[in-house]
Amino acid sequence: MSQNKSDPRDKLRGRSNVKDSPELIEFYEKLESKSATAFWRRANDIEPWEPITRYNPTLWRYQDLRDLVLRSAELVKPEEAGRRVIVLMNDSDAGREHTACVGWLFSGLQVMKPGEITPAHKHTASAQRFIMEGGGAYTVVDGHQVTLNKNDYVLTPNGCWHDHGVFEDGDISIWQDGLDIPLMNSLETNFYSVYPEVAQVPKYNIDDSPMTYGAPGLIPADREPWDKPYSPLLVYRWKDTKEALYNLSKAGSGSPFDGYILRYSNPVTGGWAMKTMGAHMQMLKPGQHTKAHRHTGNVMYNCAGGVGYSIIGGREFHWQEHDIFCVPSWVWHEHVNTSGSDEAFLYSFNDFPVMESLSLYQEESMSENKGHQKLAG
Ligand code: GTQ
Ligand code: FE2
Question: What DSSP string describes 92-110?
Fold first, then answer.
């Protein structure tokens, strides 16, 4: 999408309205030869009336990708590939250029077979993972080993050593990884290191993180307060998340835009679990059709169960379990659960912490047409 050249507001004073002339064209050429340009040639593009995303709403169907992901497990070894990941690229030039799924976000499907490991390393980019398939997987984050099962949400905060694997008696495991790689590269702050050994030796009891910080409203009292800039709780178990969503649905009527929605938070602060990316799990009641809104910040969704569709920028994107789709910044969206009997669940991750910490988060609800988008075309 690009700036609408015929926006009537561009006639207003304060916008650029200079017409080309032979003298001006010659003048522009002279400027360009000195690595300069006239502001008014660019102004209306670089100061849009509102955010204009370079990214397209995109749907990745799991049934299209799953066989290819499994095929990658036959073709390359994780120790050769570093990480065996099939990257989701936004259906736009910007997506391909920045290896981005949407905005500042990277996402990929990582597959590991029983007995395999992903070699230990660290980077400035933060990562989070949503376990799509498989039991008996684990990750080790700065010496804390965490076991992983389907629909668990797990953190790899920036700068932490990490390696992953699947136990010998586990299942083939497929994860959706979400990282802020495009943000780190745009900021030109991305560093990478490899660990001296192929894998870390866990330093703590297995699952010490969820066993220490995973009880609702309870924090250990026998130690110095947690002072790292990320959550001490590294995994959020699906069983707990699902129960919390059902409880929330019994407690009130939820959000008009998102149904029942929970934020994965740092239990010590109540804030986001990591500095640059956040995540949610939401539940739509049978037949629920939410109202449309838009906001700054980018979101990647993964259907964690159920069937439905989302209307994004006036187009319908139909999803079922493990289909993935994105909502770019400032694009209208609303969600529909098409089942008359079952709940639908949407996991999502986003760059809202960046927007909020820079005071750039803005939100608008649709007022016309009873709060719903008109379909395009
Ligand atoms: O598992 O550590 O999809 O470093 C991309 C970069 C996964 C990982 C990705 C990574 C990882
Ligand atoms: Fe990594």
Answer: SHHHHHHT-SBTTBEEEEE
Q: How far is the CA of 169 from the centre of ligand 1 (A)?
A: 23
Indicate which residue's Cα is closest to atom 11 of ligand 1.
Answer: 83
Q: How far is CA 245 from CA 261, 280, 345, in A?
A: 7, 11, 10
Nearest-CA neighbor of 346 among 312, 292, 299, 277? Answer: 299
- pTM as predicted: 0.96
Alpha helices, H only, the chain: 22-33, 39-46, 62-75, 78-81, 93-98, 181-187, 208-213, 238-251, 352-357
SS3 label, residue 208: helix
Q: Which among 142, 179, 181, 193 is the best mutation to test ligand 1's pocket, defined by most ligand atoms within 8 Å of the CB?
A: 179
Q: pLDDT averaged over consecutive 10-residue blocks of the chain (377 residues)?
A: 70 94 98 98 96 98 98 96 97 97 97 97 98 96 98 98 98 98 97 97 98 96 95 98 98 97 97 98 98 98 98 98 98 98 98 98 97 94
- Compute CA distances 100 → 51, 56, 124, 187, 238, whole Å: 18, 11, 17, 14, 27
Q: How far is the CA of 108 from the centre of ligand 2 (A)?
A: 12
CA of 222 to the centre of ligand 1 (A): 34
Cβ neighbours, 10 Å, residue 197: 11
Q: Which residues lie closer than 8 Å to 239 by C-beta, 6 or more apart?
A: none
Nearest alpha-carbon partner for 90 in 56, 136, 114, 116:
56
Alpha-carbon gap, residue 267 to 345, rounded angstroms: 23
Q: What does 224-239 look like in DSSP terms, one character per residue?
A: PPP-SSS-S--EE-HH
Domains of the chain by residue range: 8-46, 59-371
Which residue has the least CA distance to atom 1 on ligand 1?
83
The second-level CATH assignment, the architecture, of 59-371 is Sandwich (2.60)
Query: Cα–Cα distance between 105 and 181 in angstroms, integer?
Result: 7
